[in-house]
Structure formats: C-alpha cells, structure tokens
Amino acid sequence: SNINEQIEYIYTFFKPEVEGKGMHLSYINSLPAKKALVETDREKIYAILTNLVKNAIKYSKEGSIEFGYTIVETQRAASLQTPHAAFVRFFVKDTGLGIAKNRQDAIFERFIQANVIDSHVYQGAGLGLSISKAYVEMLGGKIWVESEPGKGSTFYFTIPYNEEKQTQHNEANVVSQDDESDQIRKLKILIAEDDETSDLLITAILKKNNHEVIHVNTGDQAVEACRNSSGFDLILMDIRMPGMDGYEATRQIRQFNKNVIIIAQTAYGLSGDRENAINSGCNDYVAKPIDKYELLRLMQKYFKR
Fold this sequence. Notes:
Blueprint (H helix, E strand, L loop, with lengths): L2 H18 L3 E5 L13 H17 L5 E10 L12 E9 L30 H14 L4 E6 L3 E9 L2 H9 L2 H6 L8 E5 L3 H11 L5 E5 L2 H10 L5 E5 L7 H11 L4 E7 L3 H10 L3 E5 L3 H12 L2
Parallel strand pairs: 1-2, 6-7, 6-8, 8-9, 9-10
Antiparallel strand pairs: 2-3, 3-5, 4-5
C-alpha cells in the first residue's frame, strides 16, 4: 500500500467537511512516493486513520487538524520495544476539547468515554477507538494519545516499515492497477449515497469509463429507482443513510431483482457491517473512504470485459 496515496485520499475526502466548520486541514507525507510503499493491511490503515480524523473533526469546534506520518528508526524508538528496523508513526493532531490525563488510557477501552464538560460530544467515541487499538495491535504496532484539556489532542499509532520488500512487491503491480479500469465493460450504475463528498469521489473513479451513473441519496429512492428501471448492472449502496438504511433497501430490492450486483459501502470496514451487508443480499462490500483500486478490483471481479 502506498501510504502517501492513502493520506492524500483521506485529506481530499475530509477537506470539505473541515472547511465547512471554518477550520483548516493539512497533512504531512515524509517519504517520496517510491519509498512510501508499505506491506500492510491497507483497509485497516484506512479504518484507523479515518476513525481518528473523524473524531478530530467531531470534537473540534475551531482551529486546525493536521495528520500524516514520520519514519522512526529503531534506535530512536527503544521505548516502543519494536523488533523492526524502522516503523511508520502516524499522527492525527487537533485543537479540540482535549482529554484529561487520567482518562487517556481508558478511552481505548470498549464504550468508555472521556469525562469532559461537553460529555455528549464523546458519544460513541469509545467503541471506535477500541476497534482502532485492536487493528493497530493486529498490524504489529501501538497506539497512544497525548492531550491537554482545552488545548487539543494528538493521537499516534505505529506500524512496521520495510521499504525494500514493499518496493519490489508494489512496483510489480503498478501497471495492472492502472489498467484495471480499462478491463471493465460499460455499466449502468446506481449510486445510493447521502454524503455529497463520497458521491463526488465515487463518480470521479467511474468517470474514465464513461459509465452511465444515476444518483440517489436515500434508501427509499434507491428502491424506487430499481422498480422503475430494470437496467442497472451495479448498485453502490451506502449502508448508513437517513430513513431507510442500505440493509433494508437491499432486502427490498432483492424481492424483485435477484440479479443486479450490489456492493455495500461499509463504515471503516467493520466486520459487523460486512456480515449484515451480505446477509441482507449484497454481493460484496468496500470500506469507506473508498479506495480507487479496491473498487475497480471488485468491479472487474463481476464485470470484466
């Protein structure tokens, strides 16, 4: 996975939301593209970074958010007790509410929230952070936070870094990734998505092949569009929509259309979302924010020329 591309993609995804709050979003990539290739679980990295950036946005009312990574050599990281020669240290820094020192370990436990004056702001934070912690540990790293109430927080997490092995592995796949969109036949696609930024990004991914794309932003509209047109090849179904969610919309569509391919857009790639998506009738799933090559691989799986 090219971690520079991941950072830049997440920046593009969240920039409109941050600027909509009157705040500033920035990122730091410490490596050139050819050295930013890491052998890791790309989807889990997206899940962790997305969760941390979303938390930073949610818990900050003004100021700025900065995220990115640095490379830390073993001799600079003895306190982290890593057996690897180097590791990537990601960070997400905000100027938000901050967390009291005696609560900084507890926030990574399931359903535990920091005690702050605006306690309602932290609803749901505990589960997302506990999942992020589990993912980081599965990848062989550590996660922690440095924070001061009223001044903001910086979340850090690490993953092992091995440049030589990653470069050989990834450079062999660059051409095939770029060619994937050319191997997919023209499709009639329904995008069911209530978030404008997500909709724009998906549309940009599909633009090269000039697919016919129809847009709806609720589950009810998705069902109605399918009733009125039997010609859809693919539905990209957001799971979290207002009113009728993607699960119920899929179940209703399957009552009268068993053949259309439905790919669920799941939040952070959580296993519960995936299982529910398949059980409701989806053919497959892709984690948000959607990675271009992952979506194209799924489309090639079902619609190769």
